[in-house]
Amino acid sequence: MRFLNKNTFLSLAFILIAIFTLQGCGGGNNNPTRVEFTPPAPFNIESNANVDSSYTTSDGLQIYIIEEGYGPFKVIARDQVSVFYTGRVIKNGDIDRVFDSSYQNNNSSPRILQNLTKSPISTGSGRTVSPLIDGFRRAILGMRAGGKRVVIIPPSLGYEDAQEGSRGYQLRNDTLRFDIELETILD
């Protein structure tokens, strides 16, 4: 006895495939690769009581030292470092939004930064590591483990030269603020 003819079987198979496909798509926010920035509040630089010292370089880089840090060693360009940071866009003198952070999806893991030089470097595995934007790179140089800084980066020391389609292109005309905490110098 035949329960299904060929057309009924194909129709049923099509319906089941459609149901499983739609179910797999989901309707919620189930994307495991979605990154949500969850940083702590920005370091307070408005009150001089919270800043150990500050200075502005001739090209407009502003560095506020919140805590000096400890240990005998200061970061130099050849070092790899482990840092917590949050990058924010500044509009009209106020914080507009977070665009990058080591604090993601309610986790705080320091990032390992491998290239504090001005040029790309090659790793032992043949991978090329691009340099950080100049203002961020310069802010880290000279820090000690446990040190905390805020750096205000003008576009000329940030992503001003970013080409269309490249990382940072949307930030090319923006003033940036990074809150940085150096966890450790790795080498």
How would you characterize this protein structure?
With 187 residues, the chain is α+β, with helices and mostly antiparallel strands. It has a single domain (33-185), classed as Chitinase A, domain 3, CATH 3.10.50.40. The chain has helices at residues 6-25, 134-140, and strands at 53-56, 62-67, 81-91, 94-101, 103-104, 107-108, 111-113, 121-122, 128-129, 148-153, 175-185. Strands 1, 2, 3, 4, 7, 10 and 11 form a 7-stranded antiparallel β-sheet that branches. The chain has a two-stranded antiparallel ribbon with strand order 5-6. A two-stranded antiparallel sheet has the order 8-9. The longest helix is centred in the first third of the chain and has 20 residues, at 6-25.
Tags for this entry?
single chain; 187 residues; alpha+beta; Chitinase A, domain 3; seven-stranded antiparallel sheet; two-stranded antiparallel ribbon; 14% helix; rotamase; Peptidyl-prolyl cis-trans isomerase; isomerase; PPIase_FKBP_dom
Short description:
The chain is of the alpha+beta class and 187 residues long. The protein contains two helices and eleven strands. The protein has a single domain, classed as Chitinase A, domain 3 (Roll).
Topology:
Elements: H1 6-25, E1 53-56, E2 62-67, E3 81-91, E4 94-101, E5 103-104, E6 107-108, E7 111-113, E8 121-122, E9 128-129, H2 134-140, E10 148-153, E11 175-185
Antiparallel strand pairs: 1-2, 2-10, 3-4, 3-7, 3-11, 5-6, 8-9, 10-11
